[in-house]
């Protein structure tokens, strides 16, 4: 009843504010919608008062509670229905395709990372070999022209570069094994995507495999060329050392012969 009185008071104040002059009929017509809303509010509250203040009875209270529970259930159902429908629409085939897509993306990332690592390792190995070749040729060109200290220093540099090239080669072998594992994994993922309906993902992954293999093959050629030049340098070293040793022998023989002639 207190709510009815307050609402009635609001309506009366609103009406009084608009009807300060009872002869002002035009104002009443203009604000008729406001009075209608006030009257509707009073009717709603009055009906609520009638329901709440009927004769007490356990059955009425239970019916009111049941109606509220049914309303709440209906309210929940309005918001729960779309989500339930969305979950039910995900079939096993759809989930498998999504899982296959995740596998192809992950394996493609694995392939790209191992490919870059292997290419860098092969490139660094080729650089190390070329540095060793440069030092080796410098040493061969300076045979007999360097002091003992200078020759020892150059030999130490060659040994350091030889060790670095060996470490780089071991790194290439290790990454080569990892890269091959990534390639095999991508092949399996592409096959799984194809059988699960993800033909586009399968084609993309197979293309990535071909591109990776092409880049790795180019890096392998660079390292193979470095190995070839190193082998040629070793052959040149053997020949140059043999020539140098022969020259030393002839020089020693010449000195001995001159000494013999002087004794005569």
TrEMBL record:
Subcellular localization, as worded in the UniProt entry: Mitochondrion
Main location: mitochondrion
Keyword hit for DNA damage: no
Mitochondrion in keyword set: yes
Keywords: Apoptosis, Mitochondrion, Transit peptide
PANTHER family documented for this protein: DIABLO HOMOLOG, MITOCHONDRIAL, DIRECT IAP-BINDING PROTEIN WITH LOW PI
Protein name per the record: Direct IAP-binding protein with low pI
Organism of origin: Channa striata (Snakehead murrel)
Top-level taxonomy: Eukaryota, Metazoa, Chordata, Craniata, Vertebrata
